[in-house]
Amino acid sequence: MSDVLSRLSGARQTADAQWEARCPAHDDRHASLSVSRGDDGRVLLHCHAGCSPMAVCQSLDLRLGQLFPPKSAMPSRSRSVAAARGRIVATYDYQDANGELLYQVVRFEPKDFRQRRPDGNGGWTWDMAGVPRVLYRLPELMTAAPNEPFMVVEGEKDADNLAALGLHATTNPGGAGKWSKLSDDSVIDGRFVAILPDRDTPGRRHAEDVAARLHGRTAQVRILELPGSGKDVSDWIESRDSQTPQELRDALLSMFESAPVWQPPVQPVVTAPFDPARRPNVLIDTEEHRVVEETIAAMSADPDIYRRGAVLVRVIRDRQPEDGILRSAGSATISTLPAANLRERLTRIATFTKVNRKGEEVATHPASWLVSAIDARGEWPGIRPLGAVADAPVLRPDGSIWQSAGYDAATGVLFEPASAFPAIPEHPTIDHARRAAVTLAEVVCDFPFEADEHYGAWLAGVLTPLARFAFAGPSPLFLIDANVRGAGKGLLAQTIGRIILDREMPVSSYVHDPDEMRKKITAIAIAGDRMILFDNLEGAFGNDVLDRALTTSRWKDRILGRSEEIELPLTPAWYATGNNVQVAGDTARRIIHIRLDLLAEHPEQRSGFRHPNLIAWIIANRGRLISAALTILSAYVKAGSPSQGLTPYGSFEGWSDLVRQAVVWAGLPDPCLTRVKLAEASDTSIDALSQLITAWKQFDPGHRGIVVSEMLAELYSQQRDYTSGDPAAIAMRSALENLVSCPAGKSPSPRQVGNKLRHSRRRVVGGAYLDMDTGKYHRSGAVWRLFEVTNG
Questions:
Q1: Residues 569/525, Cβ–Cβ less than 8 Å
Q2: For residue 765, what are the β-bridge partners?
Q3: Can you tell me the distance from the alpha carbon of 80 to that of 3, in angstroms, rounded to the nearest whole number?
Q4: Cβ atoms of residues 761 and 772 within 8 Å
Q5: φ, ψ for residue 122 (rounded to 5)?
Q6: Lowest CB count within 10 Å: 91, 271, 384, 661, which one?
Q7: What's the DSSP call for residue 272?
Q8: 645 touches 428 (CB < 8 A)
């Protein structure tokens, strides 16, 4: 510091560790250079006229490196952060689903918060790069019964105080406004949620933001405004110190029951044609916030701009996005709105002016910074959310049917009918529903279902896309398979597509590589596809990415051209076809099975069908088939959604309470009965684990223990021949590739293998199991060992 100050002209101290001087990099007469010392001991230079630190150093005949203290004098990051922040008064552990510590939120006095994670050497690092952000108290949330509400609060202290009352409570790291930074919040899907905001403006905004993000994914969302003058729920609890924990718990649950169910504000609908002569004018000046807000307000006049999650989108009808999804000609898809097109649209809905050097207000183009600011805003009041584009009526949450052309604010569906549909009864009864089921049965009268419940599963597959915007949470995948090629599984899948879409449903190839699968699902989320078919499955079906997609209705990923992670709705009805498909154990519970069983040596030679040209028959009768399907759904809801006493279906409660219950109410078998045999036949996870344990015994015969990252580096080194050499290495590579479902010869990532090991830890197969050696820790990660089960 003294060396720098001695070279400056007119340096004078303005605070304990701050100086000001004339900047040597320009003709400075106002002492515009600030000099201070950073937490790590380096000298900080800031010229308020805009000169860079490099330019200042060159003018002083210094190197940038001379601004840094010697390494021996530099404090560690953990010590410098702690010293700068003050005294640590509380820490809050954030754990993954298996209870492993990911990071801590640290509270300092004076009041401040930071996040840190274990550094692998028994200490801490404040660098959080690459660490997934999870909900607080995640392991406890995963053990909650389906009907127990989740309390969402703004801080860890509040969550702990509610947990002490016997409630399931959580929060997100970072507090208000940071929910979108979570890596995964799918544990909340299908749940009853109470949001308890802090009593201030940021708290209320945060509550509305979280409610909007959870709406459509949960059973219910309610915002609880606590009585009294306290700032948060902890203050409310403290003010009632005379009440017992049970009384406080009962009071909160009573408030939850009486609070109104949160509904999104109704978005304005453009009903009158836009008049170009009445376009508003936006003056572009340095008040950028005003310019952006006025322009967004004008954008609501454009009926063709929508939002999807935190992305502006448009509907594409004349061409298909190049995203690897095969769609029929004429399919309307959703596409992100390019910046160039946004700029063009702005000139349609508003005029723009600026003040020139003469003080005159003159016409101008929308500024580039304005287009970028609008695109990056993430929130656009007045711009309607778009869930899907449909050419058939859809069911609404109240049981009514949206059958008027145009946008429906209740579902977010844009209805663009290509033909007329028969009227659906306004007050359908169970008799209407059962007659409708008979009408739909005619579609599949020639298909050899293995059992009646497989027909019930097919009907559920027809109803799901029509009901998709009337229930919260995800829907399961419908797997259509057969015992032999030519049984008609592909045609059976397309009967659903032809009824719902009037065309073949979009087809995507299934890929074993999780990264490629993630890209395909992101493309599906952007395009807003109502239905997706994974056709002609081969090999094991299911991986971590697909499992995550099937149990969530929101998807986070990076979109091409954007650096930040974007959250999008993910609401397609999922389908797949194959012969004797082997399904991974974790994926099997997410599947409804539709099985064809044909004992014929030459199935392709069959004849005598009731509908020889089935697709042509469906096209001719599509209107009444759609009407029949919607009648079943509407009748069930308007009858009060009577419970059929079915067993719960975890993760798919919303789908089960509407579609599954309606199928049984209409007189058909429970579609979920097909899952039992599928689970028995398709649990490949035990086989994969058995193969791994056998290979592990060969690879580590001395039971020394294995660090995953080091093992993968050894197995997949560039010098190794994958097809020959050490039999133990070959066996271990094959077992790992089978465990994580990745292509042969491609190295799994340490995280993929680690996640699978943690999921299977202490699961006994053949008298042995894998577990972490708690007595050992390696700088590269946990040490895993094979243990033998001992008597007793």
A1: yes
A2: 768
A3: 23
A4: yes
A5: 85, 0
A6: 271
A7: S
A8: no
Contact criterion met (CB below 8 Å) for 44 and 37: yes
Instruction: Identify the residue whose tokens are 């008049």.
Output: 275
The whole-number mean pLDDT for each consecutive block of 10 residues of the chain, a chain of 792 residues, reads: 80 75 82 76 78 80 75 50 66 90 88 86 84 91 87 93 93 88 85 91 87 84 88 90 90 89 66 64 91 92 90 83 75 88 92 88 92 90 91 90 88 86 85 94 92 94 95 93 82 94 89 88 90 86 89 83 76 91 81 85 74 91 93 94 92 93 95 81 69 91 89 78 74 88 83 84 85 72 85 50
CA 410, 416, 418, 420 torsion-angle sign: positive
Helices 288-299 and 368-375, axial angle in degrees (round to 10): 70
Using alpha carbons, select from 336, 369, 363 the residue that is nearest to residue 350. Answer: 363
Nearest to 763 by CA among 616, 618, 592, 586: 586
Candidates 509, 539, 462, 550; CA nearest to 190 is 550
Assign 557 to helix, strand or coil: strand
Task: Estimate the crossing angle of helix 430-441 against helix 614-638, to 10 degrees.
Answer: 160
Q: What angle do CA 392, 395, 398 make, to 5 degrees?
A: 155
Calculate the CA 78 to chain-centre distance.
Answer: 33
CA dihedral of residues 9, 12, 13, 14 (deg, nearest 10): -110
- Strand pairing partners for 575? 478, 533
- Quickly tell me which residue has 């006025």 as its tokens: 294
What is the rounded distance in angstroms from the CA atom of residue 149 to the CA atom of residue 144?
9
Q: Are 273 and 341 in contact (CB under 8 A)?
A: no
Distance linking the first and last C-alpha atoms of the chain: 69
CB 315 within 8 A of CB 303: no
- What does the block give as tokens for 631? 């009648």
* Beta strands 333-336 and 311-316, pairing class: antiparallel
CB-based burial label for 468 (10 Å; 0-12, 13-18, 19+)? buried
HSE, side-chain direction, 13 A CA sphere, residue 445:
15
Instruction: Report long-range pairs for 600-608 (Cβ below 8 Å, ≥24 apart).
Output: 600/484, 602/486, 603/484, 603/485, 603/486, 603/487, 603/488, 604/486
The CA-CA-CA angle for residues 579, 581, 584, to 5°, reads: 170
Distance CA 468, CA 501 (A): 14
Residue 3 CA to residue 554 CA, distance in Å, equals 56
Residue 784: DSSP 8-state: E
Q: Residue 54 has what pLDDT? A: 76
